[in-house]
Amino acid sequence: MITFARNFKSAAARITRDLRHRGLIQRALHSYEVKRDEFKGRYQNWSEARQAASEIKWEAINHLDQYLQEFITKLEARGTHVHVAATAEQARDYILGVARENKVGTIIKSKSMTAEEIDLNEALEHAGCTVFESDLGEYIVQLRHEKPYHLVFPAMHLTRDEISDLFHKELGSEPTDSPEELTMIARRVMRQNYCRADMGISGANFAVAETGMISITENEGNARLTTALPKIHVALLGIEKIVPRLEDLALFLPMLATAGAGQPLTCYNSLFSGPRQPGEVDGPEQFHVVLLDNRRTELLADAEQRDALHCIRCGACLNVCPIFKNVGGHSYGTTYQGPIGSVITPHLRGLQNWKHLSAASSLCGACTETCPVGIDLHHHLLHNRRNAAREKPAWLEKILYGGLVFLLRRPGLYRIAGKLGVIFFPLHQLVNGTSLDPLHNWTRTREFPKPSRESFGDYWRKRKSTPEANRDQS
Amino acid sequence: MKVSLFIPCFIDQIYPHVGVSIVQVLERLGCDVDYPEGQTCCGQPAFNSGYWDEARAIAEHSLDVFAQSDVIVSASGSCGAMMKVFYPELFQNTTRHFDALKLAPKIYEFSDFLVNKLGARDVGARFDGTATFHDGCHGLRELGIESQPRELLKHVKGLTLIEMKEAKTCCGFGGAFAVKFPTISTAMDEVKCASLLETGADVVVSNDSSCLMQIAGMLQHQGTPKRCLHLAEILAQT
Question: How far apart are CA B153 and CA B127, in angstroms?
């Protein structure tokens, strides 16, 4: 359990030392910010749009039972198989069952973080299936046997050269630094895979209760091919993806694109409501929708942090987070990186194992400020810290803060402690910055200021005892 | 106007001149300044670390100290936010909740007090040189303080404000975070310092001394020292 924290710290230390890596991420996110602001500027009132989005998600999440029921009923009416999976294992088993029943050998997949959450690819491969990612970024990280770096931009940590080298090594293509050429290389491979695939697996961006549809938003057209060419389409989504009405998409689709990718709208927006209907000429023969709980209902039961289920996975909070920008996506070791990941991972995977992510924040609030659906992200980090300390206090901290309570409720003692600080400061200078220094974690990279001989309290008491007319004005 | 000062512990002990400058500015503007004796710390370190029982015990002391005050001016946006924004949450479902709710609207961050309560823009300050302003995150995002310090700086005679690109990016201090995750905190500090050095400004100004401790500490460590001043220190100069 301490391993997760240790891994995070050592990965973070590695990336913070890697100036090239940090520069790459920061430059990429800077261009995103410029675009995002441009398109935010096209809204009549962005903050009202945020408020509206937040209220719609509030309504959906606080009536999730009703909306899910409506969604499922509508989907089933058109011949969709809907499976509600309480756990990751149940979701995997169901999808494996569909694959086995239909003798599926090759699977094409469009981007789905929910599939990452339940390690679906590993399970399918273990069962003998061949899985191809069709989203370019996902395909690249799949070839590298890596996890997505960012929940929206899975390969943002790689340069064109690195991708060219990877394609050269894995696909035998000629090296190139042209993004178009690189895309064409991937496309040539991918087109074969679409035709070969027996099953297409997708995620979903929204689930519309009113009409029983899932909405997928993308830029490459790969999700359309993934869902349209194979005979079986399986969509895997978290239960929180619900929006009540079809018209809600008029707000959420552009908002997701703007907040997530700095675009007015993504290039392809599709709605799926069932398998091929009698008389229709195309579409999959089977359509399965797997609704994943995987401890989301526990988060739902937590009134304080329930709004974390409003998340539309746009990644905006990662893009503005100074922690993310300096430690990168892989350091987190989670499916969902950045602030939203730090908030929800303790709920999804255990508080004590993942509390370090909530501690690893300066609580600057940039995430909350940017979140398009108004999740109180940085305050939830505080709530996680409180819950973790309440459940299992770190004894050293408990003693430290207990001592502070004793000290800070006694002004006289506090004054004496201040004077002791002044006395000990010269002694501290002897070990300043060395490994013997108790303030080592600060002083190794930053100078510690010298405490003042006269505190403000001293100044004030002196001033009070001096008649007003004689006061030094300087 | 009778004003009670809240001088957070680290300003009291390390940067008392910030408090003195605040007194000078407020008195120049005709305020009757009082410093309720016995004040220590707002309890934020314990609160941010998740030890809310301990934080409450410390915060209760502050509730008592400031019980008689009508207007409280905080020398730090962060500690001001602790009292104004977080005390009501911290004391929820306790007997002191009402006291916390009563205290909250009385708290003003220094620059906010000058601009929005006193209506002052030009406080009669003079500072010859260029300055760049760092927004402390708690002041900026918990209290919505963004234009106030800039308004005040723009009216300082002789001063030219040069905005840095990363003005609103966290410096990486974050209290205990700075020592619990020193590598991350340092990396954030590096980004901040590079951005402020890029402006070539003579001084770095902020409304939070804790951020300045982080920034000055690194500038000094990397051999590019620069004067780091609290807004009040600029405004006190005539």
Answer: 10
Cα A308 to Cα A374: distance, rounded to the nearest angstrom? 9
Instruction: Determine the CATH number of domain B124-236.
Output: 3.40.50.11810
Most A CBs within 10 Å: which of B6, B32, B34, B40, as the mutation test of the A interface? B40
In chain A, where are the structural domains located? 1-42+317-392, 55-294, 398-470
- Burial-class residue A434 by CB neighbours within 10 Å (0-12, 13-18, 19+): exposed
Contact B14 A458 (CB under 8 A): no
**Strands of the sheet with A130-133, listed across from one edge:** A81-85, A286-292, A232-238, A199-202, A106-109, A130-133
The CATH class, in words, for A55-294 is: alpha beta
Is there a contact between B19 and B110 (Cβ–Cβ < 8 Å)?
no
Parallel, antiparallel, or unpaired: how do β-strands B203-206 and B227-230 relate? parallel
Of the candidates A143, A139, A146, A181, which has an alpha carbon nearest to the alpha carbon of residue A160?
Answer: A181
Q: Pairing state of beta strands A286-292 and A232-238?
A: parallel
State the CB neighbour count (10 A cutoff) for residue A100.
Answer: 12
- Amino acid identity of A399? I
Q: Is a pLDDT exceeding 60 seen at residue A434?
A: yes
- Interface touch B180/A359, C-beta < 8 Å: yes
Question: Three-class SS of residue B2?
Answer: strand
A375-405 confidence digits (pLDDT tens): 999 999 999 999 999 999 999 999 999 999 9
| Whole-prediction pTM | 0.96
Closest to B42 measured CA to CA, from A271, A325, A408: A408
Q: Does ipTM surpass 0.90 in this model?
A: yes
Cross-chain residue pair A405–B12, CB shorter than 8 Å: no
- List residues bridging with B230 in a β-sheet: B206
Return the structure tokens found at A346. 């303790």
Compute CA distances A269 → A94, A216, A247, A441, whole Å.
27, 6, 14, 49
Where are chain B's structural domains?
2-116, 124-236
CA quadruple A464, A465, A469, A471: dihedral sign: negative
